[in-house]
Amino acid sequence: xxxxxxxxxxxxxxxxxxxxxxxxxxxxxxxxxxxxxxxxxxxxxxxxxxxxxxxxxxxxxxxxxxxxxxxxxxxxxxxxxxxxxxxxxxxxxxxxxxxxxxxxxxxxxxxxxxxxxxxxxxxxxxxxxxxxxxxxxxxxxxxxxxxxxxxxxxxxxxxxxxxxxxxxxxxxxxxxxxxxxxxxxxxxxxxxxxxxxxxxxxxxxxxxxxxxxxxxxxxxxxxxxxxxxxxxxxxxxxxxxxxxxxxxxxxxxxxxxxxxxxxxxxxxxxxxxxxxxxxxxxxxxxxxxxxxxxxxxxxxxxxxxxxxxxxxxxxxxxxxxxxxxxxxxxxxxxxxxxxxxxxxxxxxxxxxxxxxxxxxxxxxxxxxxxxxxxxxxxxxxxxxxxxxxxxxxxxxxxxxxxxxxxxxxxxxxxxxxxxxxxxxxxxxxxxxxxxxxxxxxxxxxxxxxxxxxxxxxxxxxxxxxxxxxxxxxxxxxxxxxxxxxxxxxxxxxxxxxxxxxxxxxxxxxxxxxxxxxxxxxxxxxxxxxxxxxxxxxxxxxxxxxxxxxxxxxxxxxxxxxxxxxxxxxxxxxxxxxxxxxxxxxxxxxxxxxxxxxxxxxxxxxxxxxxxxxxxxxxxxxxxxxxxxxxxxxxxxxxxxxxxxxxxxxxxxxxxxxxxxxxxxxxxxxxxxxxxxxxxxxxxxxxxxxxxxxxxxxxxxxxxxxxxxxxxxxxxxxxxxxxxxxxxxxxxxxxxxxxxxxxxxxxxxxxxxxxxxxxxxxxxxxxxxxxx
Amino acid sequence: xxxxxxxxxxxxxxxxxxxxxxxxxxxxxxxxxxxxxxxxxxxxxxxxxxxxxxxxxxxxxxxxxxxxxxxxxxxxxxxxxxxxxxxxxxxxxxxxxxxxxxxxxxxxxxxxxxxxxxxxxxxxxxxxxxxxxxxxxxxxxxxxxxxxxxxxxxxxxxxxxxxxxxx
Lengths: 771, 167
What we know:
The complex is a heterodimer of chains A (771) and B (167). Helices cover 27% and strands 24% of the residues of chain A. With 771 residues, chain A is of the alpha+beta class. Chain A folds into 3 domains: 27-35 and 466-515 and 528-604, 2-Layer Sandwich (Aldehyde Oxidoreductase, domain 4); 39-140 and 211-299, Aldehyde oxidase/xanthine dehydrogenase, a/b hammerhead (Aldehyde Oxidoreductase, domain 3, Alpha-Beta Complex), CATH 3.90.1170; 383-462 and 612-765, Aldehyde Oxidoreductase, domain 4 (2-Layer Sandwich), CATH 3.30.365.10. In chain A, strand 23 (572-575) and strand 24 form a beta hairpin. With 167 residues, chain B is α+β, with helices and mostly antiparallel strands. Helices cover 36% and strands 16% of the residues of chain B. Chain B contains 6 helices and 5 strands, in the order E-E-H-E-E-E-H-H-H-H-H. Chain B has helices at 34-41, 86-89, 93-104, 114-126, 133-139, 151-166; strands spanning 12-19, 22-29, 60-63, 66-69, 82-84. Chains A and B meet through helix 1, helix 3 and helix 17 of A and helix 1, helix 3, helix 4 and helix 6 of B.
C-alpha cells in the first residue's frame, strides 16, 4: 500500500480525537473491578508456585534437602539449580550474570534458591517451609564504599557475556565489583574549575527506593517442552520473549507472552523478572504454574539504585558556569539488571542542560550483596538532578544571583547540542522555567518558615525507537488496534485509540485496543522511557493513515471521483455532499459481507534522519518547583504548592497527562522526603513491609497542585506529541532540596527526613552556609 | 531459619453470611483469610491483594457497611455478618454515581487500588459523609494509590458525595 503522510481529515466533534480529555477507555472496567490482572486469571490445570529465598546476604550453599517437601501430598514439582543443567539457566538483558535459581552460592537476601509448585498455594507454602538448606555464611559486601575498596571481596568471579538488550555498545571489562563505567569528557574540567571564581562541592547520597507497584510481579507459565506460553505482569513483552527464547533455546514464535492489565509498573516490571522461574517450574511440573510475588519478595526483586556522588561545580564571579566534575557510584545490588543503562543515564544527567566550558563525568555501576536494582521512573535523572541543581543555587547564593536568573543566564537553548552526535535540544527550557516561577509567584515575600525552589533537567527519552502497529477496520465500521504498549495505568490504550480516532474520524468508542499477545500483536520494543505515545503512537498514526488511504481509494470508486478528492468525515468517505459510511466502503471493497481493511505502520531508527535516527527520540523536560513550609522544631517539611511542567508537544489527552504528573509529583515527594530501603550491616532488608516502608498517602498531598501543559507541537510523535510522565519525578526532589536551600538548610542526603532537616538547620545556625 | 512442616490437620468451620445481597454457606478451613475466601474460593477477583499488612487498602471490602482489610481478617469471622465487595457494589444504586465521578475526574489509572477506593467511598457516602476535604482525606488515608496524586480521587469522592446528598 502507498503511504500518504498528509491525508485531509477533520477533527470529529466530541468523539475522542486528539486533544480531548475523554474518559479513559479502560475506566469502566477498572472502576468496576472487572479489569483482569495476571493474578486474576485461571488457566486450566494450573498449579501454584512459591519460591524459597535466601535468608542471608552472602553464603555458600552446602546442601539442599527437598525430600520432605516432595513427600507432601499435593506437591507437584520442586526445582533447584540441579534441575537446570540442560539449559543456560542465566539471564540479564544488560549482563547475563543472574542465575534463575542460586547455584552454589547466594548473593543477596531474598535470592531465589528453590521453587515449588503444588495443587494449592497453601500446600506450596508448606512445601517451601519443609525444604532444608545448609548455608555456610560468608561476609557480605553491603555498602558501595566497601564494594569499591581495594581489598574488597569480589562478589562475582565468573566471566559473564553481555546481555542482548543493553544498547550501550562495548560494555568493557568488570573491574573488581564495578561492572560498568560510563565516562563523559568534554574539555578539561579540572582546569576550568581551577580558573573558576566560585567553586562549590559536596558528597551526596541517594537512597535505595522501592517502586511499589501495588500489584506485585505475577506470572503464569506453561512450558510444554516444545512451546512456552507466559501470562505476565511485564512492561516489555517482546524483550521478555527474547530472553525466554534464549534461555530455553526456543524459536521466538515458540514463546508466547501475553500481557493483561498491569497494576502499576514504574520500571519495576521492565525487562525479565519472575518469568524464568515460573517457566522452569512449569517445565518440571508439566503443567501451567502461577507464581505471585508478595510485597516483601517484590522489594528484593528490583528496586532503585542507591548512590554516592561527588560533585564540584565552578562559575565565574558573575555566575557564568564554567565547569563541573562528577564521580558517582550506583549500587546495583547483586546482579546488574538494568544498572548499566541507569548508570549511563545518570552520567548523561550529571551536567544538566547547561552550557559549560568543560565537563568530566565518571559513573560507576557497582555490585553489592543487596537486592538487585533496575529501572524506576526517571532513573538517572532523579539521582542527579537534585545534586546538580542544588549546586547551581549555591553558586547563585555566593554570587548574589537569583536562582531564576542563574538559569536564564546558563541554560541551553532550543537547538543546542546536549550530547555529541545526538538530537539537539527540542524544548524551550527557559520558557518552561519562567512558567514555573510565575505559578509560584517567584520573588514574593514569604514568611521565615517558607522556602521556594525550582529545578531544571532533561532526560534522554524514547529508548530504542522500534515499534509497529496494525489496525483492522471491519465491515461494521469498527476498528481493532493491535499495538504492543503495556497498559499499566498511564492510559496508553486511551491515547492510542485517540490517535487512531483522529486519523480515521471514527469515535474512540468504535476502536478496540487490547493488551499485547506476542503471537498476534506486532513488535514493540518496550513500554518505558516515556516512549509509547511518541514512538508506538507514531506507528499507530501511520497504520491509521494506511487504512484511511484504502478507505479513500474504495470510497473514490463509490463516489465516482479520484481518491485525493475523497475526504473522511465522521466515519464516512465523502465528496461534496455525497457521503458513504465506512461499513459500506468496507463491504464494497471486499464484496459479499465484507472483509477487513488492514493498515500497518512502523517506526525504526534506521533508514532515515532526525531524532529517531540520532537519538534520543526526544529530550523529556524535568522541570518543576515547590513552595514548602518547614517546622523549625521538628524539621518536618510540608509542601504548600507544587508546580510541574508537562512539555508534551501536543496533548493527546490533557487529563491523562495531568494525573500522570500529579502521580509523579507524589513519587518525587516520597523519594525526596521519606522513602528509603534500609539494609542492615548483614545485608538484610529491615523495612520489607508497607508498615515500615512508607509511601505517600492522602495526608501528603500538597495544598495546591499545578500541572502546566506546554504544547509547542515540537515533538517527533503523532501530531507533534512527545512523551511525559517521568520528568516530574526528577524535578520534584531537586525543587524540594532547593527550597530548603533557600532557607539556608543544605541537604546532601535524601530522603530529607525531619531528623536530617533538623540537623541541617542546627548546622546552618552554627554558620556553616553559603553566601 | 528453617522451620518444619506445619500440621496437616485442617479444622473446618461452617460459614454463613450475607455476601453481595445473597446468602452464602460454605465449609471452610478455620484459618482461611477473607481475601482468599473471596478471590480463590468464590472467584470474586475484584478484591485485590497487595501489602498483606492492612496498610494499602487494595483488599478493602465492607463488613456490615464498614471498610475492612480482607487480607487481615479470617473468613470465619464474617459468619453471621454482611459482606459487600466491588462485585456487589456494582448492583447498588450509588454505584452509578461513584462510577461517573471516578470517570469524570480520571480517578483511576492502573486500577489495582480502585475497587478498594470505591468501597471506602461507598461507606463514606452511606455513613453521612465527612464535610471537609481534610476529613475526606483522612477517611481515605487507609487506601494507597501509587499512580495518581490522590487529588483526583478526592475530587471524585467529593462529587459523588455531593451528588448522592442531592438525591
